[in-house]
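User: Hi! Is it possible to get a structure for several chains at once, not just one? Here's what I have:
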Amino acid sequence: MVPSDLTQEIVRDDTLVIRTGTALDNTNAHEMVDMISSAQNKGFRFIVVDMTALEFLSSAGVGSILGTVEISREAGGDIILCRVSEPIMHVLQVLDLAEFLTIKPDRQQALTVCGVTE
Amino acid sequence: MPTEMTSNSAALSLPGELTGEAIAAFQSRLDYALREGPDEVVLDCSHLVHVTSKDIALLWQVHEQCTSSGVAVRLAAMSPYLIRILKTLDLYEYFKQDSNEVRSALIDAVRPAGGSGEESIVDVCSATDESTAGAMEAFLRFLNRLKLPQIIEFELRTVFYEVVTNIRMHSGISHEDPIAFSVVASPALITLRFADSGAPFDPTEHRNDDTLRTAATDGRTRGFGITMIHKLADSVRYAREGDEINVLEITKGWSR
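Assistant: Yes, the chains can be modeled jointly so their relative placement is included. Here is the combined structure:
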């Protein structure tokens, strides 16, 4: 089995940080969906997706976030993206998602949305 | 339609029109070839323009007769249409394949006309993970040489990935089947062409800009590839060539 390039860190009982690897595409988007869904089922209302390492985002990668964000919002939380590179931000803007998704420049500001101070 | 014998194979042409006389003549040549004890029989399928149930029945009859004699059957000059029918009927795997002809047809379908001041590559990969990853690397090396703006390069990379993924996952081709592509860069325009022998599919009829907006409320995580291609490209054109090959042409304008 190929080791996952997605890692997670619990920062509070309702807040989880997921760090992506260099790509979020067909090879691992299902894993991202599973990780987010599992966290939501365990009561993590806020999920921060740290994209520091992310170099490529396919439609499947976009879908893994887009298709799960409403569950977090309905629970009073959100999925917050941070450290999004310029090309990936451009793609999100072209897809008309930059306003729809919550995107913050860095981890600290993303955690502030969750009410977490580090 | 001659029968050619080499030391270990016999080559026969399948008749284009299956009259009783043509079938009898073919059967006679096959019987003769098998008496010579070849390791394999190569059937030239180039005359099979309109594949009928009679043609398939004859192919299967040849397969059964050869197999009972311990002789393999290889099909040469298969059209993508014949390949698809054999796959649909779960018969494709029973024959040894010669995919060179299909590869050539796909490459011809994407081959650029060639113009002054243009740079181009033509390549072909199979639909495996490894082969498509290699194709992506070749594509990126080509883009890198052009020194495109980072955003344009990223958009083209994404489009390339989405098109190839869509072909691999939804066209019905097998892992061994080829996907041909070309990239032509003129001073202001990049043109990508892709060709595959899968089921007909026109992505220009499946654009849905509302997909992304409604996906969140639907909880849908897949099915955004075509929308993404349309959003990132300047133009998308589709053609079905000879009822056998899908050709997709995508353009993207650029300037330094």
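Chain B has two domains: 4-98, 104-253. The longest strand of chain B covers residues 245-253.

User: Great, thank you!
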